Amino acid sequence: MSGFLLIGFSDIRELQILHAFLFLVMYLLSLAGNLIIIIITTFDQHLQSPMYYFLKHLSLLDLSFISVTVPQSANNTLTDDSYISHAQCILQVFFFISFAWAEVAILTVMSYDRYAAICFPLHYEVIMNPCKRKWAVTAVWLSGSISGILFTIATFSVTLCKTTVIHQFFCDVPQLIRLSCSNKYLGVVGVDAFMAMMVLICFTSIVLSYIHIFSTVLIIPSAGSRAKTFSTCLPHLFVVSFFVSTGIFEFLKPTSDSPTVFDLMISVFYTVIPPTLNPIIYSLRNKVMKEAFRNVVLGGKFTRK
């Protein structure tokens, strides 16, 4: 065969239908939530600050990231055809790695933006001026593309001589390396180690930013302001930690010839859950976003009534 076979969660048809249904529900939720954020941060003139500018790009990345794997997996399950061509697999690896790294990068930029806004409010407009935020977003997308190219070249430069069965619901890099019968996969290990180090650096920067934010907020005498900051920052920090830890664990753990359901669930934790939760954290918990949603979607006249 010129392609691969993706082994899903179960061989039982009823469970396959359940898996496809759950994936489609989560995909539609992510699609709706992220599209709403993109629309209102684009058209609402009150949401043109750097925070919402970065949030729009995060939503665009979330939407792209989840679209790489979930629709293909649901379609394969519903049609009872687990085949994916070699070209589709290459594209899936490229876009998956590109959007995954870009998401880590944009989350790092967003944490620095909040750090600058809370810890240096008088200098915030200078630190995050329009020119700098455009350069930051350009660097995010460019670094994602470079990462995707490096991973794709390193992954598909190895000789795949074993079975073409991939024990995953998408073309996962560790599972592809498992099919190799040559020692050229050491290049992939090197790229893995380098990217893991970069992700740890970004995650450390995010944690340090929030440590400074929390230490600054604790000094604020207003209990309401402290509660508002903690209610927004803590869920964000949790999702970032969840996304980074599960992703690094999946890429660095030894691959097995007989993967378990736990291995598949780990993949779901960093491919499906974060893009679905991010819109909830950044919109439903934000009064400005909810007001903008009512104005844009329901109309100003209805909202006033």
Automatic annotation (TrEMBL):
PROSITE patterns named in the record: G_PROTEIN_RECEP_F1_1, G_PROTEIN_RECEP_F1_2
User: In this record, what's one Pfam family?
Assistant: 7tm_4
Subcellular location field = Cell membrane
Q: What is its main location?
A: membrane
Provide a GO CC annotation, any one.
plasma membrane
Q: What superkingdom heads the lineage?
A: Eukaryota
Membership in a protein family: Belongs to the G-protein coupled receptor 1 family.
Annotated protein name in UniProt: Olfactory receptor
State the organism of origin: Orycteropus afer afer
Lineage summary:
Eukaryota, Metazoa, Chordata, Craniata, Vertebrata
Q: Which gene encodes it?
A: LOC103211149
